[in-house]
Amino acid sequence: MAKTAYANARNGAVRTPRTTEYELFSRVTSQLKVAAEDKANFPALAAALHANRRLWTTLAADVAEPGNQLPEQLRAQLFYLAQFTQHHTSQVLSGAESPEPLIEVNTAVMRGLSAGRTVS
Fold first, then answer.
1. Along the chain (120 residues), what's the average pLDDT of each consecutive run of 10 residues?
2. How far apart are CA 98 and CA 116, in angstroms?
């Protein structure tokens, strides 16, 4: 692991908050996609939903901070999406809804963070 970290530093890879957020969303969204495809593995889905909920809870707390420098309208939109994620996750866990809208929301956020990178 240390070799990888030092290799990235030598290669000029700079981690910005934006790239870190993108990578977190990418990892969680990938986990959600895999879990959503395996309908028989509810524990994997529950774990993916929990990881996604934690990500959005952290994001909501961050945008609610008075010192957050994002534009106010964007902060409000992200907070709303965090609330939607909380509610929809409960619906998915109860079997009433599909995780697909959560994947779509995360993918849209990744597009916003990507600054020109292709998001699948």
1. 52 79 97 96 97 98 95 97 98 97 97 70
2. 29
